Known about the structure:
Layout: H1 2-27, H2 32-68, H3 72-84, H4 87-107, H5 112-148, H6 155-159, H7 165-183, H8 190-197
Amino acid sequence: MKLIRAYFVMLYVQVILQLSIVPSIKYFPENKSFNLFIFLHVFALISVFCITQILGCLSASLAVKMYWHSEDDKIRKALILLKIKTVPFYLLNLVYGLIYTLFITFVSMGMALVLIVPVMIPIWYTCAFVVQSGFFGAAAVARLRKNYGDCISKNNYVLQFIPILDVINTVFLLHKSRKLKKSVTIEENAEAYNNKVD
């Protein structure tokens, strides 16, 4: 779980660096130090992007490992951390994108389309995070289907990789799994009942 927590923290470090670049440019005095400051800020942002992406890929592979080792509780905790507790990250990222787009459109009408391209990079990059965290959602769906059978639809696999729908689906899965754990009997699902008893 340390790796997953590190990934979670880096997501927020990344968005803080994104949001702080415009105020930093506005209030930092323009001199030789200004250029160095901007360079260091952009370098830090790119470095954090890369580190976060690496941690995301490692976390995704960890989801597969957790599935094979039947670590249902760890999968559930990771799912809550990366799907529910990252909602503010995605909202902040969206706000950053909207503010940047509106600002650029207002300031330079003719060049707006060209200058909007940089904001698209973090947005598409954010989609990679949805896919990486989606591995935990897919692992949760697979474990629920293994334990409780067809009462969990295969459509849930797809929903875990679609922005916004992944969060709604995660809430549904957490609620459904809680409900199934309470209602399982040997008559309804012998395999799930035996797993629960063990």
